[in-house]
Amino acid sequence: MTDRLIYTAMSGATQALEQQAIVANNLANTSTTGFRAQLETFRAVPMSFGDGSSVNDQTTRTFVLSSTPGADETPGPIQQTGNPLDVAVQGDGWLAVQTADGSEAYTRAGNLHIDQNGQLVNATNLPVLGTGGPVSVPPGAQITIGKDGTISALAPGDPASAIAVVDQLKMVKPAAGTLTRSDDGMFRTADGNPLDADPSVTLAPESLEGSNVNPVNAMVSMITNARQFQMQTKMIENADQNDQTANQLLSFS
Q: Where would I find the Flagellar basal-body/hook protein C-terminal domain in this sequence (predicted)?
């Protein structure tokens, strides 16, 4: 039975460490614009002796395995910045960007800027998508973004009446839980196919959405995970002590 206890405790300790890493990453992103807290769930998996075809097959131990991770889709707080290139998605919805491999990804971070090529890009310099692809703006123009994502430009020296619509941000509204987080922090569809624009998505101009991570809850989770890890390692120590005691008893027999 000692080996069963060791492997069971080991699986629990491993998952506690993984959970701690996730919570630590969330805590490190409490001030990251548009960040969605990562979630991780675990499940108990009974391990049976035999192939399961016999009534004599019995469950010998239960391992802990991670389930499909997800993201907390609760909106973060919106704060007005006064920057005309800052936008915050209100309610459900995502901004579309083009990744380095040319595919489409989605983000809630609306801290945008114009790069040296005159393209509208996000904080990691990924092109922001409009109705026909990456958005380009006239050089030196004053840019404003409306609630519906409409991008308007006013050339230097022109009267206010000369403002012209340049493009419109592509905003999507997938069903809850259908996007998955990638290693680059962007969200994508399960099949990798781009989503259609949804005109019902609205923005808060000159504003940014903050992270939805609750620092207090994250700290409590870190303490809980640390205690769970200590409990599992204590079980491993006890199993080792039991094994040594059993060996001593066998050597006397």
A: 207-249
Q: Does residue 2 surpass a pLDDT of 50?
A: no
Count of H-run helices and E-run strands, the chain: 2, 18
Q: How far apart are CA 247 and CA 92, in angstroms?
A: 61
- Cβ of 133: how many Cβ atoms within 10 Å? 11
Q: Which residues of 9-48 are buried (b: 16+ CB within 10 A; e: fewer)?
A: bbbbbbbbebbbebbeebbebbebbbbbbbebeeeeeeee
The SS3 of residue 44 is strand
Token pair of 72 as six digits:
């907390």
Domain boundaries, the chain: 2-72+213-252, 78-209
pLDDT tens digits, 53-77: 554 455 556 666 665 567 888 999 9
Record the pTM: 0.77
Report the SS3 class of residue 79: strand
Angle between helices 2-28 and 215-252 (to 10 degrees): 160
